[in-house]
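Quick one: structure tokens for this chain, please?
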Amino acid sequence: MNSMTIQTDRAINQSSSNKTHISDRFVEVPGGQVFVRSWLPEVIRSDIPMLLLHDSLGSVAQWRSFPQQLAEHLQRPVIAYDRLGFGQSTPRQALPSYDFITEEADVIFPALCQSLAIQQCCLVGHSVGGAMAIAIAALHANQCKAVITLAAPVEIHDRLVEGIEEAKQFFAHTESFNKLRKWHGDKTRWVLDAWTETWLSDEFSSWTIYPYLPRITSPVLAMHGDSDEYGPASLSVRIAEGIKGRGQQATIAQCGHIPHAEQTEAVLNLISTFLENTQEAVR
């Protein structure tokens, strides 16, 4: 396993001279329709797309400019989707089951790939999206060429629970809740409860990602901020060391729970170098 700490400069030039085609569509999956957005750069070095999986309060829109920057930086197609119940996808009534991470990998991922004609892809998952990427790679090894996790959880621990409890109190205020409504509209209460009530429940307290790790043969890059409010950077070390394939860990300096937004340039460079070093597997 390779491990490193990345010192970064927060300034980044957001401009680009490349032309990227952006397209939206809705895709049928078990349970409803998911909203999908694709970024296709003008110059393409590889047809294998990067598939983005968002966090517990996330959506396609909340990736902001990162998918386009990723597409142009790697010269690869990038695809992101709103999970059911989030963003522009079909609303859900019942809260997720306690096996929702595996269900996303086992049920939604295959349906999405079939509808989008994705035969192989590289996964980029933020927070719980990183846990989903790990589960997908374990269950669909032939389709998953590489995995990149950003601040992925590996188990329920005190710091994670404290962070979620603080977030629950934060969003109890109307102003904070309304900011989240910008992304999820009438689904906002469900989105918030799907995170806090599930992750803070006694039934979910024994959840762990560890059973998936030994089944992963794809190369994995696990990134974590050194100031992540939901868990220490050592969590990414456990991911990189636990897989069967080639694992690399990177601790990003001056960075919290959203590395791709807080230290975009460092994340882009890490992903680019990682894919170049594993090009036989991911080209």
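Residues 2-158+208-282 form a domain with the Rossmann fold fold (CATH 3.40.50.1820).
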